[in-house]
Each structure stands twice: as structure tokens, then as C-alpha cells.
């Protein structure tokens, strides 16, 4: 199938789930260009596991400013019908706000934070721009419905992103500890691409439904079991407010199953290489709007003065 369609990473127009070996490096730059604050050991962990938690990237004062800006946005947008606002299922509460720099100069500056840009430029081996950004807020005692997935599968299929030359960073605006139901990841899963079956193309059994195996872009329970077995276990990327979780575009991740009595929030920024600009989406899909995937208004990011 790979040779017939010419796409090394097909998905959704498949009769069965597909596993393909990653074709791109995880880090594109030579070690001599590594930022001084990034150790060789930390880089090796990122390459092997597909994610890295860096503590104390932002100061307490910076986090306080960002949280104040977040509170203002939530107050202003709670009653908005903007397409940029995503809400909790069955609720008017804001879950995410898309295209952060357009809403707040402070978050626009965050996207140009020297450490964030240094890591992105080093890992991707080029200048970078924001492919996507959003503010994520999970209120206490609520249930997020984000299942296991690889972001790259979505970006490649729905946005036409050619290669695994993008990375995400989650700037923790609040503590994300075990009691906050943090995001879950499968270490090492970034080394394997999973092409998925369109859930509309096959019947759903009760067992499959119970395992949420037919959500669009989600691997089957069997593949998730295989990836988890290879990893040894699922892990959570925990950290205190001010920490940053960098993670590869192809790592499998999801929200924790259980609700928490604590709220949590993060700013989610996706950096893409300028040498990995979006092409045509797969399977005849129409391009998604700019607030989900920048393709027409691309600004190469320069660090703060």
C-alpha cells in the first residue's frame, strides 16, 4: 500500500491499522549546536522517550501574569460564540481557546520565549513558526474526552504536514502533579507511526466501544497494548507551574481517565519547521481553518529582545 499511494504515513482510508517505522530523526541538529542549558543526558532522554520535562522555565511572576491573562480571557470569552472557543461537553465552560497569540500579547510573547525557541530550533534544525496554539483549561471535577492519539497522524492527514519535523510544548500554568490528572504518554511510541482505520468504515463491537477504539485517528486496543508493552508502561509528564513539557509530534498521548478535584491549565504551542510547510491534506480533505493549522499567515518566530 505504501508504494501504491506514495505516502509513507497513510491513515483513515485503510482496511486495518498500519504500523510504519519513523523515517525522520527525532533531533535534526548536530550536538555542537545544543543550547547550553540542555544537557546531553536530557537530549538523549528526549530522543529515546519522545518527551522531556524541563522545570523552572518560567518564573513565579511570569506564571502569575499568564494566569491573570488566562482569567481575563475566560471571563471575556465564556459567553462568546467564536469558533476559537471549545467548550466542555454539555457545558458552557471554556475548555480551550485556539490561536493564543491573536487573543493576548502576553501569550504572543510566550511563543517567542528564548528557551522555547532555542529548544524548537535545535530539535527541528531550522527556523520555526507556530503551526497551532491553544489555551487548555480543565476545571475541577470534569472529564476531558481526548483519547490516545498521535498529533502527527492528525496534522499529516488533515493538514498535509509532510514529515515528523514538528514538536509541541505544554507550558504548565498550574501544577500538573499526580493528583491533577495530568496527561498520559507512551514513552518511545514516537518511533512508530500508526495509520488508523476510519471508524465509519467498519462495525463497532461492544468490546471495541468499551475500549474507545473507534474514535477518529485512534489506534486499536491491540496496537496500544503493543506500544505500551514495548514502553514498559504508560507514564505521566508531571511538573510544577512554570515547567514545560516538550514532546515529539508522533508520541501517543491522551488525557487521564479520572476527574480531579483540582483544576489545571496549560498553554499548548506547536512549533513546525519552516522546511516542513503544509501541503494538501490527505484523502481529499479540505484544509482546516487557520486557527487550527497556519498555512497562509506564517510568521517566522524571532526570540524576545
UniProtKB/TrEMBL annotation:
Coiled coil: none
Pfam family for this entry, one: PhyH
Highest taxon of source: Bacteria
Cofactor: Fe(2+)
GO molecular-function terms, A-Z: 2-oxoglutarate-dependent dioxygenase activity; iron ion binding
Classification via PANTHER family: ECTOINE DIOXYGENASE (PTHR20883:SF48), PHYTANOYL-COA DIOXYGENASE DOMAIN CONTAINING 1 (PTHR20883)
Entry protein name: Ectoine hydroxylase
Source species: Paraperlucidibaca baekdonensis
